[in-house]
Amino acid sequence: MITYDAIVIGSGITGGWAAKELTEKGLETLVIERGRNVEHRKDYVTEHKPSWEFPLRNARLAVGTQGAEQYPIQARTGQFHESVKHFFIKDHRNPYVEDKPFTWIQGDQVGGKSLIWGRQVYRWSDLDFEANLRDGHGVDWPIRYADVAPWYSYVERFIGVSGEKLGLPQLPDGEFQPAMEMNAGEKFVKAGLERAFPNRRLTIGRVAILTQALNGRLPCHYCGPCERGCSTGSYFSSQASTLPAARATGRLTIVPDSVVHSLIYDAAKHRITGVRVVDTTTKQTREYAGRLVFLCASTLGTARVLLNSKSPSFPNGLANSSGVLGHYLMDHHFRVGASGAIEGLLDHYYQGNRPNGIYVPRFRNLGDDASRRGDYVRGFGYQGGASRQGWARGGGEPGFGVELKRKLHDPGRWSMGMTGFGECLPREDNYAALSDQTDEFGIPVLRIHCTWGDNELAMRKDMAASAAEMLEAAGVKDVRTYDANREDGLGAEPGLGIHEMGTARMGRDPKTSVLNAYNQAHDVPNLFVTDGACMASSSCVNPSITYMALTARACDYAVAESKRGNL
Amino acid sequence: MEGRGHPVNRETISRRRALQQAALLLGGALSAPTVAGVCSTATRRAWAASPAWAPRTLSAAQLELVATLTEHIIPQTETPGARAAGVHRFVDTLLTDHYPTAERDRFLAGLAAVDAQARSRYGKAFVESATGQQVALLRELDAAAYAATRGDDAWFFRRMKELTLVGYYTSEIGAMQELHVSPFGAYRGDIPYTAVGRAWA
Questions:
Q1: A320: closest CA among A380, A262, A260, A233?
Q2: For chain A, how many structural domains are there in total?
Q3: Distance, CA of A536 to CA of A505 (rounded, Å)
Q4: In a shared domain, residues A36 and A21
Q5: ipTM above 0.90, yes or no
Q6: Are residues A513 and A544 in the same domain?
Q7: Quick one: A250 and A114 in the same domain?
Q8: Is A554 part of any domain?
Q9: Does residue A296 sit within a domain?
Q10: Are A149 and A519 in contact (CB under 8 A)?
Q11: How far apart are CA A545 and CA A552, in angstroms?
Q12: Which of chain B's residues have a Cβ under 8 Å away from the Cβ of A50?
């Protein structure tokens, strides 16, 4: 049997990065992926397909509708449409038990969710890395912004990020390509908002979409629906970016259709020696041998692999001497905010489908008295945008016939919406554990117990109220707030943000954390976890670029340690 | 706040041309099936109006009723209307392949109710009533559908209207002739509306 220098589990955003870094540093690397193979370009089967070629006209496939039968969980996200269903998992392939509503959105293919992610990328700051230490929730991060900053730059230069520099301490600037343009409605709200609140900013989203060519990838052509796949490689995905780089080294092997059952631990060596997988086609078990393992199977996928890797040394799951494995699960809470109408500007329009919106950086609890809130800790940011109403408005108003058709020939009034994305505290009683059920591959499935706490619920009130306050101050009319959260129900339940993180957190103390400052398991030197599982707190910004930076940093450390003979 | 607008070619660039430009831009990077799928007008039309097409949920009479209703909602003007765009075929597809049973039944009951009202009022099925009679009934349904207190009729007529708008404006006729599809290539955030002249589909 071949012994690989490194085995990477998962080929999504972090697995792709681990594959690139490890192969470029000379390691023969095996990437194991549970899902099917998806080839760049060839397998983007709905890309650029016009609406009329979809039998259901690209309908949203909601829970309970035909077309969603095999996706009862995936259909809960508003992103689940006829045009992209093939990039979501069929839920019977990885079921789980919900103690409370928790929506686990999963990819099931090479590239994972990197094909369908939201592409918004924001650096963390020390406001985030010091948060746990400052207010006592969770354990202190073993790293600070200075440890990660060069790796953010390294990642941004490779993936390509367009955005605007703001000079804000709570949202550090990065290596940006030219920003996308705001439309007239957004410029109007920006001007009014910043006039009324001099310490707040409204900027164009920082997004992993090119506005200039980069490494053979072309700038965005503004067709719109990135999530169908992009043949020009204009947004970052494993297919467009990291996997081709890894492949170019000649040291990459990818095995799709192979779900990891467990890691094989040698108690005498205190090391992982290999990985046990189940072939999803034949359901046969196979093993692969490797000297180093990077676990990048997604937050909950990673927790599941470790929990199921039991041995006499680790009866409660591999690398779990602390007992915290599976706990401190987080997600961003969202689907709360406000929207309204902008009067006038009817002589202004736009052209092109910009796959990006606006961003309002965090302005609460920044460490000064002026921004401090008494009712909750941490903070939130807003994403949103303005647009002119289209033909769909006709369904909400009386009228039909020639008059209606004439009216819908022109765009309607401008509207502007803002949705908050709020930080979630790390809490022990939000967790994933193994259930007593198994999936069709014979692997125990997860039981997930996760709810929003008092801090998140208090923050949501401010997220709605502040959005309305800013829109009104900016001159937006008919402002209405909304909050989709329903206690113990669906609407804004944990998981829906698809920013799930935690379960194998980093920390300074092996007694209270799973990973050290380099994403290396305290208990198992040749095991690294660099996906969202590693997170000790959640910040309020989209997490993927932080996962990427931590992955590249961990690869650098792992290879150096390996050369020193420490792994 | 910047207010500069970008000049834009008044001539509408068709989607096909946009795709050809994109394909050139990519140096052929668009996959062959993608280009073939998008550019084969013949393929599209074959789906839209194949002589072999037959409804799978609606009866012939119901299909004609739906076609009549949709054409009232979005009629032919200088551009074709809902019937020519095949919205009734789209409705049948949606009822057959997307709607849960209860919703489909509710929609079919709504169709039956329209006919029942036409019969009680005009002594004829809706499609056999005079055009003026049809319009008069629909005006009542439309007013009731958006009134403060709404009954079951309201659900049906609103749904009928929504389906007509989706079916029409996502059809090739609705998206390309009545409105237009934003060309690929650039994003311009702030241009004069007069340079565009129609809503994007």
A1: A262
A2: 2
A3: 5
A4: yes
A5: yes
A6: yes
A7: yes
A8: yes
A9: yes
A10: no
A11: 11
A12: 15, 38, 44, 172, 175, 181
Q: Does B183 touch chain A (CB under 8 A)?
A: yes
Please check whether residues A471 and A391 belong to one and the same domain: yes
Residues of chain B contacting residue A409, judged by C-beta atoms under 8 Å apart: 178-179, 198-199
Q: Which residue has the tokens 């237009």?
A: B180
CB A498 within 8 A of CB A105: yes
Of B33, B77, B165, the CB nearest to A391: B165
Q: How many CA atoms lie within 13 A of B57 on its CB side?
A: 22
- A462: helix, coil or strand? helix
Q: What residues does A60 pair with on adjacent strands?
A: A81
Write phi, then psi, for B107 (nearest 5 degrees): -65, -45
Interface list for B 38-57 with A (CB within 8 A) = 38, 44, 47-48
Q: φ and ψ at A161, to 5 degrees?
A: -130, 130
Question: Which residue in the block uniquely carries the two structure tokens 């008092």?
Answer: A454
Reading chain A (567 residues) residue by residue, the pLDDT tens digits are 899 999 999 999 999 999 999 999 999 999 999 999 999 999 999 999 999 999 999 999 999 999 999 999 999 999 999 999 999 999 999 999 999 999 999 999 999 999 999 999 999 999 999 999 999 999 999 999 999 999 999 999 999 999 999 999 999 999 999 999 999 999 999 999 999 999 999 999 999 999 999 999 999 999 999 999 999 999 999 999 999 999 999 999 999 999 999 999 999 999 999 999 999 999 999 999 999 999 999 999 999 999 999 999 999 999 999 999 999 999 999 999 999 999 999 999 999 999 999 999 999 999 999 999 999 999 999 999 999 999 999 999 999 999 999 999 999 999 999 999 999 999 999 999 999 999 999 999 999 999 999 999 999 999 999 999 999 999 999 999 999 999 999 999 999 999 999 999 999 999 999 999 999 999 999 999 999 999 999 999 999 999 999 999 999 999 999 999 999
Parallel, antiparallel or unpaired: strands A358-360 and A161-162: unpaired
Q: Which pTM does this prediction carry? A: 0.93
- Residue that is written with structure tokens 């996308």 in the block: A180
Q: Which two tokens stand for residue B174?
A: 């609705």
Asked if the C-beta of B161 comes within 8 angstroms of chain A's C-beta atoms, the answer is yes
Report d(CA A131, CA A137) in Å as an integer.
8
B170 touches chain A (CB under 8 A): yes
Say how many CA atoms lie within 13 Å of A77 toward its Cβ. Answer: 27
By CB atoms closer than 10 A (0-12, 13-18, 19+), residue B64 is middle
End-to-end Cα distance, chain B: 28
The whole-angstrom separation of Cα A342 and Cα A477 is 6
Q: Are residues A250 and A220 part of one domain?
A: no
Structural domain for A286, as ranges: 3-46+87-120+237-331+499-563
Interchain proximity B192–A347, CB inside 8 Å: yes
Question: What are the C-alpha distances in Å from A135 to residues A131, A171, A327, A518, A541?
Answer: 6, 20, 19, 24, 19
